[in-house]
Amino acid sequence: MINNLNILLPEIFLTLSIFSILMLGVFIKNSFNLIFNLSSIVIIITIAIILNRPNFEEKIFLDSFIRDAFSNFFKILILISSLFVLNTSKHYIIDMKLDKFEYPVIILLSILGMFFMVSSNDIIIFYLGLELQSLSLYILASIDRDNLKSSESGIKYFVLSALSSGLLLYGCSLLYGFTGSTNFDLISNELNKENTGAVFAMVFILVGLAFKVSAVPFHMWTPDVYEGAPTSITSYFAVVPKVAGLAVLIKFMFIPFSNILLEWQTIIIFISIASMILGAVAAIGQKNIKRLLAYSSIGHVGYALAGVATGKISGYESAIVYISIYVIMNIGIFSCLYLLKKDGVYKENISDLSGVSKKNPLLAIAFLIILFSLAGIPPLGGFFAKFYVFTAVLEQKMYTLAIIGLLTTVISAFYYLKIIKTIYFDDSAFTFDIVKNKKAQVSIFISCGILLTFFLYPSALNELVDSLFIN
Question: What are the backbone angles phi and psi of residue 122, rounded to the nearest 5°?
Answer without folding.
Answer: -155, 140
